Amino acid sequence: MSMPRVETAEGPVDHLVSFCSSLRRYTRGGIRAPNKPVTLLWALDRVAREEPRLTPFAVAEVELRPLLDTFGTPGTAASYAFWRLRSNGFWEVTQTGPLPARSGDKEPLITAMRRHAEGGFTESVHRRLKASPSLRETLERLLEGQLEGPSMYSPASKSNSWQTVRRLGRDRAFRSAVFRAYGSRCVVCGWGAKLNGRSLALDAAHIRAVSAGGSNDVDNGLPLCSFHHQLFDAGVFTWSAKRRLMIHPAWQDRDRGEMPSLLDHQGEVLLGPSMRRDRAAEVNLAWHRTHVFASRGRFRFSQHSSAAPS
Ligand SMILES: [Zn+2]
Questions:
Q1: What is the pTM of this model?
Q2: If you measure from the C-alpha of residue 218 to the centroid of ligand 1, how many angstroms do you get, rounded to a whole number?
């Protein structure tokens, strides 16, 4: 039965498979706690992308936070699963400096982890995962199953597959990375207004469209205000090989009006629409005045909105 040659690798790999298939293990108080599955899916994705085996926690935290914010247990730090997974034999956390312990079996102080902790699959497991796309697929399917079913997060997440998890996380990571790279300003006009610390009407635009195979890497992104993003996506302008902005000859915007100051519209009446039944309902306007206007934009319409914090 035993096969000595592969024993060192099979043990932890088998354990990883059974860990990924034991759904109940992740429930806390009857509620699914998907921080570990999300962290493992993230790690499997890194293996597929041929990233280094160990990831500094500071890097992992940046990549995991948007995923955990969307699909993890609210209020749980990225360090939770990253640290606790190491008790399973297929995962390790190495330290490049002191990691002072906290009380109980809690993870070390997050500030120390950011400075000194690196984590990932153990060497033998990593080797097997790297060599076996089908093993990775099996594990992904098992873990995806844990992001479905009864959960404490948004109802929409129940039907989302890992692809959606990944896309949402990458959209946010992409946006953050692009803004970080360029500063949170439109590269055309310099628009960079913020409200409560969040950029408004500013997008991370893909240079090559995702639908055309464009990546979510920073080098495929530019911060553009919503206006210039639309013009850019419509092909009104581009940049030459010498990186000079070139405008399509068909474009005319002289005497077509300028982007006006909001203050110019102070006091204007909300007109239309032509169909009276389509008019904005007073109950909705009242809600907006109370919950959005009065709180100066602190209300978030959707956790998936493009106005996510950058
Ligand atoms: Zn702009």
A1: 0.49
A2: 19
